[in-house]
Amino acid sequence: MTKQETDRAEQTYPLRTVSRLTGLSPELLRAWENRHGIVRPFRTPGGTRRYSAAELERLQLVKAAVDAGNRIGKVAKMDAAELRQQSSAVDTKQSADFDIILKAFENLDDVTAQRSLSLQLATLGPARFAREIALPLMYEIGERWSKGEMGIASEHLASGLFRSLLGSALQPTASSVLSPRIIFATPTGERHEFGLLIAALTALGAGANPLFLGTDIPVEDLLEAVDQSRPAALALSLVTLPTAQANRVVRALRGGMPADVNLWIGGSGAVDLEIPSSVERIGSLDELEQRVALLVVDRAVSR
């Protein structure tokens, strides 16, 4: 392989990774390419498909349009602008669904709320449900509660229902049990669980095998968990922990963990930390998804 081909391959995603990031099976991806020319991935000299970031985005938009009820033959002819218009139409429908769910919470109508959310979970799958439904809805509920537009009972009902649905969805799949193990936890004094659950579900959707330990875990217990399970990474969520305390926790964990176990930190409380070079700051769910996908690829190559 020439240097130019090597550089290009390093800037692209393999088929297995694209399949996980889009939710499209490898067989369907190949069919869309061969029959409809949705994308034209780069081929290595060995014939391996490699997809650019733009092709990955196009595939995600195409899947969204098809999920909204459009025929693949029609969608295949759309350019990026038309596909984004389709996404806007989906967003409009989603807004209507959100209004129904929010009204149910306001009325303490747990039956309607659970039925609507369970349908969304079944339709989208755990990872997409967590990011596209649970996250924006909980943010909106928090905003309404802080403005006095929603009562504390409604907020507690929503929190409990989302926690139950997300927790039940965090189940290993047949393929994930053979994938890289990632521990998800918060340290002592950090009790925000919702973002941690969504991060764990995002990792599951990207092909990892998450071990969810939950919140308020002492450093020594986290180190013991790492020693027992030998994960590829420990993912730590930080939101309200004071900066000095968070820095001490991060240094203690990094110093007590094997060098080959990644330490990832995320959450709003991780933004201003002075972290060692051996610690990775994960700034978004998209970044987490991409980092997990790389772990999965590395695991496959090393076998």
β-strand percent reads 5-15%
Number of β-strand runs: 8
Largest sheet: 5 strands, parallel
Choose one word for the global shape: globular
Question: CATH superfamily of the largest domain, please?
Answer: Cobalamin-binding domain
What is the distance, rounded to the nearest whole angstrom, between the alpha carbons of the first and last residues? Answer: 22 Å
- Write down the domain tally: 3
Characterize the structure shown.
The structure is a single chain. The chain contains 13 helices and 8 strands. It is α/β, with parallel strands linked by helices and 303 residues long. The chain folds into 3 domains: 3-75, Multidrug-efflux Transporter Regulator, Chain: A, Domain 2 (Orthogonal Bundle); 90-169, Methionine synthase domain (Methyltransferase, Methionine Synthase (B12-binding Domains), Chain A, domain 1, Orthogonal Bundle); 176-302, Rossmann fold (3-Layer(aba) Sandwich). The strands form 2 sheets. It has a 5-stranded parallel β-sheet with strand order 5-4-6-7-8, with helices on both faces. It has a 3-stranded antiparallel β-sheet with strand order 1-3-2. Helix 10 links the parallel strand 4 (181-187) and strand 5 (209-217). The two termini are 22 Å apart. Residues 3-10 have low confidence and may be disordered.
